UniProtKB/TrEMBL annotation:
Residues 1-19 have a biased composition (Low complexity). Gene3D superfamilies: Putative Large Serine Recombinase, Chain B, Domain 2, Resolvase, N-terminal catalytic domain. The keyword Endoplasmic reticulum does not apply. Residues 530-557 form a coiled coil. SUPFAM superfamilies: Resolvase-like. InterPro entries: DNA_bind_recomb_sf, DNA_bind_recombinase_dom, Resolv_N, Resolvase-like_N_sf, SSR_resolvase. This is Recombinase. Keywords: Coiled coil. Residues 1-30 are annotated as: Disordered. Residues 270-397 form the Recombinase domain. The keyword Coiled coil applies. PROSITE patterns: RECOMBINASE_DNA_BIND. PANTHER family: DNA RECOMBINASE-RELATED (PTHR30461:SF23), DNA-INVERTASE FROM LAMBDOID PROPHAGE (PTHR30461).
Length: 778
């Protein structure tokens, strides 16, 4: 197995996305697009080992090719999957002088999964006739991906090999060249690459070999024919589906609220189409239709938001699923079949042949196909019209806003210093309210989607204060930083004291071994008795791999020695960190994230008397990576030292857990005032310096040192004593909110606008909603 399995000399470190270890659903789907199924991979591995064992018994005898056992088949399948998902396009080292590569593909999910194994068998038989040994890790494959686009993971890997590692590749086998491309332009590009790099493309079934000038012409003509065939087939399918819609056929699975039943004749036998398939009729599913009417009523009559409707449906498991969200509710409310009119051809898809991206374009309503289906009506015309008017207002309000271009997490949320992720579903927490009082929530949890348990939201201000207070308490202190610098210097001394060695003899010996390995690999394709050669090759390979590891270690330790870190530098470093946290958030957030990594949020018990719940935050600090980022940002002279330690994998990690709750200002201020007092300032001088009441400063210092809560009834947090209490805002607007809500059925946003216009009281829609909830409780 050594030499022919996917064991490369250099391992690629796993990459995470911008949220740390978490990937969104679309990112996961994109990552696995084109990956053959587990059964298909096992069939490929079984076919490979069985065919190669039969035709290359000398490799089996020498131990370079394993037997076709269940264990080895599973290992080969797992190696292929790992290589595919890693996205690594480097060419695996070949045991032979020049490698023979293979490309496999089938078009869609309706194709036979064993097609890949069948293609591989045909190719291996042809390669064995040519006395070309195909190694397992030189096989590329794409499953259920069309050849009309070049954006295929397996195909892109093959192109990268041909462009960047042409000297190591002799030829590429394909079952037939249409598996590579069904696009004439892309086929000609591939031909040019193969010609420029002197790589032969061989189609096993069609007998095309691009090294032959006449075959290149045949390949170009064939590609043109395939492209025209695909275009013609698309037009035929489109024409056939349009005709079937006009004839009353079903083109799509039934929407929520409907079901398909099999039509039967007078004898109770299923009616069959001309293709021999049972004829299905769409009817109203009365159980689901009740919920369809309820959704329209919630939206129109009760003025529920789409998010609230989705949350209610998910909590009840309506439709046997918990994946309802605002987008799906919008689609349901726009579905004209509920009023007895079925539409088809409302959109058209345009595919970019270079990127493979599909763009959906909305067609004018005049170009839609429509048919009356009164037996499928679920809602009345009045309910439908009121729904569409309300949706139109929502769209108008949405499009009126200024849309900012999408970007990364920092550009999307430029005001967020802490950007956590959900500890249940891994989704990024987004702004639930983006006004003055920002709050974060998990969209899956708010809609009770995917059984996510993070259903509440939390103020951005509270989250930032709680996490920063924890960091200031445990990490961002002079004591911790001095200890970190001391341990870093100790590790640095150990690394630098490791003896260096002269690398010249090692390099010369490695060069000699590589030449010997190349000669033996050449003999493998010429000699009949390969046992002695393979034994010698295995010995040299093992020695060469060990020597390369030694050389890598030696070169690493012989680099320029970085200098030690002065522990006194902790004071400046701490000041710079404090200044950093006060700078532009988009600049500070990535550096802070290097320290905390992904901050995972989970939800605890409900707070008594409130709708909110306790949030728990957990993260693992990476001190070395943080110091690297901070040193680069501030251009410290010891930046090279931290980079040296980081590349050696040294760091101090610690898992930090905390309860996200309001951190009173006097806590952070008490620490600040206490430090100023330690420098010799009196409470009066501190009060004058920070612009606060002297009694407040004294109380904050006592609270910080003794862990007590000050008696704030005597004075407020500033310099002005408290006056008589004012009536609550909710009490001032309570009567008007109740009247407008009950009598006028006015939305909270409109009530807020009415209060501003008629009473000159400026409140948010959220304040109006809280007032209404308070009135409902009373």
């Amino acid at each position: 197995m050594k030499g022919f399995s996917n064991n490369s000399d250099s391992t690629k470190s796993s990459k995470t996305n911008s949220s740390g270890l978490y990937l969104t659903k679309s990112e996961k789907q994109q990552l696995r697009k084109g990956l053959p199924s587990k059964d298909a991979l096992l069939a490929m591995a079984r076919t490979y080992l069985e065919v190669q064992n039969e035709h290359w018994p000398e490799y089996v005898t020498s131990g370079l090719l394993p037997l076709a056992t269940v264990e080895n088949i599973e290992v080969f399948a797992s190696d292929f999957e790992s290589s595919f998902l890693s996205g690594d396009q480097s060419f695996p080292r070949s045991t032979l002088k020049q490698a023979a590569c293979v490309y496999l593909r089938y078009s869609d999910d309706n194709s036979n999964e064993r097609s890949l194994a069948q293609q591989l068998k045909n190719i291996l038989l042809k390669a064995n006739q040519d006395r070309r040994f195909v190694e397992w890790h030189h096989i590329c494959a794409d499953a259920a991906v069309s050849a009309t686009t070049p954006r295929r993971a397996g195909y892109q890997k093959l192109l990268s090999w041909m462009r960047n590692y042409a000297a190591q590749i002799e030829l590429v086998y394909v079952d037939d060249l249409s598996r590579l491309n069904r696009n004439m332009t892309e086929s000609m590009k591939l031909n040019d690459i193969a010609s420029d790099e002197n790589i032969r493309l061989i189609g096993v079934k069609d007998g095309i070999e691009t090294s032959n000038p006449s075959s290149r012409l045949i390949h170009a003509v064939t590609s043109w024919q395939h492209e025209n065939f695909i275009t013609g087939l698309q037009e035929k399918v489109k024409r056939g589906m349009n005709d079937r819609f006009e004839q009353g056929g079903n083109l799509q699975p039934p929407s929520f609220g409907y079901k398909l039943i099999m039509l039967r004749d007078a004898d109770g036998e299923p009616k069959l189409s001309r293709h021999g398939k049972p004829i299905m009729e769409k009817l109203v599913d009365q159980e689901e239709a009740v919920w369809v009417r309820q959704i329209f009523e919630w939206f129109v009559v009760k003025n529920w938001s789409r998010q609230k409707i989705a949350k209610e449906l998910n909590s009840k498991g309506i439709g046997g699923k918990r994946t309802w969200d605002s987008r799906k509710i919008m689609q349901l409310l726009e579905r004209s079949v509920y009023r007895g009119i079925e539409c088809y051809g409302m959109t058209v898809q345009q595919r970019n042949h270079n990127t493979g991206k599909v763009t959906v374009i909305q067609k004018p309503e005049s170009e839609w196909q429509k048919r009356d289906v009164p037996h499928l009506r679920i809602v009345s015309d009045d309910t439908w019209d009121r729904t569409q008017i309300q949706l139109k207002k929502i769209r108008a309000s949405y499009t009126a806003r200024i849309r900012k271009p999408r970007g990364n997490r920092t550009t999307l949320s430029p005001s967020l210093l802490i950007r956590p992720v959900c500890g249940y579903c891994g989704a990024r927490l987004l702004l639930a309210h983006s006004s003055k009082y920002q709050s974060l929530s998990c969209m899956n949890g708010r809609e009770k989607k995917h059984d996510c348990q993070l259903t509440t939201h939390k103020s951005v201000r509270i989250l930032n204060r709680a996490i920063l207070a924890k960091l200031h308490e445990e990490i961002l202190t002079k004591e911790f930083l001095r200890g970190l610098f001391k341990q870093a210097n100790k590790e640095l001394k150990i690394l630098l004291n490791e003896p260096a060695e002269d690398l010249t003899p090692l390099k010369k010996k490695l060069e000699m071994l590589l030449k010997q390995e190349a000669k033996l690999a050449t003999l493998l394709t010429k000699e009949d008795d390969l046992t002695a050669i393979t034994d010698a090759l295995r010995t040299i390979q093992a020695e060469r791999e060990g020597l390369e590891r030694r050389l890598g270690e030696a070169e690493r330790h012989s680099s320029t020695a970085p200098g030690p870190i002065d522990p006194k530098f902790a004071i400046k470093c701490l000041k710079d960190i404090e200044a950093l946290l006060k700078e532009d958030v988009s600049y500070a957030a990535p550096i802070l994230e290097a320290l905390t990594g992904p901050i995972r949020i989970t939800q605890g018990e409900q707070v008594p008397g409130k709708r909110s719940a306790v949030w728990q935050a957990e993260f693992t600090i990476n001190t070395t990576q943080f110091m690297v980022e901070l040193s680069r940002a501030k251009k410290y002279p010891n930046t090279g030292t931290w980079e040296f330690l980081n590349t050696r994998g040294w760091t101090i990690s610690r898992t930090v857990s905390l309860e996200v709750k309001e951190v009173p200002r006097y806590v952070s201020r008490g620490k600040e005032y206490s430090e100023l007092q330690n420098f010799g300032l009196s409470t009066g001088e501190i009060a004058k310096k920070v612009g606060m009441n002297e009694r407040y400063v004294s109380a904050a210092i006592d609270s910080f040192r003794n862990g007590t809560t000050p008696d704030w009834k005597k004075f407020d947090s500033g310099t002005i004593p408290r006056g008589p209490s004012k009536p609550l805002l909710s009490e001032l607007i309570l009567d008007d909110v109740v009247r407008l809500r009950k009598e006028e059925n006015m939305a909270f946003r409109k009530i807020a606008a009415w209060l501003k216009e008629h009473l000159s009281i400026k409140v948010s829609a959220q304040t109006v909603k809280r007032t209404w909830d308070k009135a409902a409780v009373q």
